[in-house]
Amino acid sequence: MPWKNGAGRTSEILCEPAAGDWRWRLSIAEVEVAAPFSPYPGVERELVLLSGNGLRLHFEDGQVSELLPPYGELRFPGERRLVGEPIDGPSRDFNLMWKRGQVDACLWRRPLAGTMVLFAAPGETWAVHLLTGQGRFADDSGLGAIEPGDTAILCANDAERGRFALEASGEALVMHIQEGRNHRGDRAGACA
Description:
The protein is mainly β and 192 residues long. It contains 1 helix and 14 strands; from the N terminus they run ββββββββββββββα. The strands form 3 sheets. A 5-stranded antiparallel β-sheet has the order 1-2-9-4-7, with no helix packed on it. Strands 10, 11, 12, 13 and 14 form a 5-stranded antiparallel β-sheet that branches. It is globular.
């Protein structure tokens, strides 16, 4: 789909709710030329470089940040105006966005070796985006194998807590999304 401002393209993985005004969203953007990013007032954003030689972010206030391989990342308020400039060729970037005051979200890049178990209580979601390697969820999850570029969404079933066991090797982005929290904008406090 086109960006909100029409200057680029995004592949949407999931937004919640699926219709109307979302509270949180996962997507992958392809940035081929320097272009302004769409502003999202009241939204926190976290970008992770997936491929390419990097992405240079020129903020309106003069700050310049670079997302460099492998998997450079940056969190920033969605209302900050900026231009994204690919470094020496196109880039692909993972994008986690969530509305302040409605949702808390954290993103980690984690090595995978052996079994990782995640528990999802009602009102929370885990997402695992496999960067490298391979993995397989336990048969009782109904999810099966996961390959690089796949994103698994893990959530509770009605009022019961969900348990998800992933046997994997490689590296992944692991995200925790909690509905109904009052986000303070303090990454250390919110993601500890």
